[in-house]
Amino acid sequence: MSFRKTLCLVAATAVVPVVLASQAPPPKHLVNTDKSGLALQGYDPVAFFTLNRAAEGKPELAATHRGVTYRFVSAEHKATFERAPEKYEPAFGGYCAYGVSQGGLFEVDIRTAQIVGGRLVLNKNLRVKEMFDQDRENPRMADREWPKLVQRHGKGAE
After folding, report:
1. Could you say which DSSP state residue 53 is in?
2. Most buried pick, 26, 87, 90, 154, via CB within 10 A?
3. What is the DSSP letter of 111?
4. What is the pTM of this model?
5. Could you tell me where the beta strands, DSSP code E, fall in the chain?
6. Is 133 in contact with 139 (CB distance < 8 Å)?
7. How far from each other are the two terminal CA atoms of the chain, in whole angstroms?
8. What's the CA gap between 141 and 103, in Å, rounded?
9. Could you tell me the residue ranges of all domains in the chain?
10. Residue 99: CB partners within 8 Å, gap ≥ 6?
11. Burial 46-62 (b: 16+ CB within 10 A, else e)
12. What is the Cα–Cα distance from 140 to 146, expressed in whole angstroms?
């Protein structure tokens, strides 16, 4: 085989993975929202970390990340979120963490919000939150189940 043919073959082989990668479907995501695309029932995700409590966000202070709308109590919280949304997004898409650990998706009660391992975690109700908190394996189980739920129920990135 000539040098020219070898060079063309090597160049073509190097391009194929790049072309295939660019044609891969976008990663899926799954977030618990209302019909309008509002997450966390309108509560400010940053407030759980900085104020250590739930605080209703203002409609005029909203930001959209991956097609999901979040509201904030202040322009400072909005800017904080926009700098690092992955840090403040709720774990398990804002679905019940205990339910996720069991392979299911359930709505949540905002009063169950807590920071666990640096992540905002919610549960279906206060009784379920207690069950989740009693077993240290639950967050790990939820982490194992979450990708399966995203694959099954998620949508492509927007």
Report:
1. S
2. 90
3. E
4. 0.82
5. 28-29, 58-65, 68-72, 109-116, 119-123, 155-156
6. no
7. 47
8. 9
9. 28-156
10. 105, 106, 123, 124, 128
11. bbbbeeeebbebbeebe
12. 10
Instruction: Give the integer Cα–Cα distance in Å for 26 and 105.
Output: 22
> For the chain, how many residues are written?
158
**SS3 at position 61:** strand
Look at residue 43 in the predicted model and tell me its pLDDT: 98
Instruction: Read off the amino acid at residue 76.
Output: E
Of the candidates 11, 28, 30, the one whose C-alpha atom is nearest the C-alpha of residue 94 is 30
Query: How does pLDDT run across 126-145, given as a tens digit for each residue?
Result: 999 999 999 999 999 999 99
Q: Six-digit token pair at 82? A: 């926009």
Report the DSSP beta bridge partners of residue 69. Answer: 38, 64
Q: In a 3-state reduction of DSSP, which class is residue 113?
A: strand
- pLDDT tens-digit readout, 78-102: 999 999 999 999 999 999 999 999 9
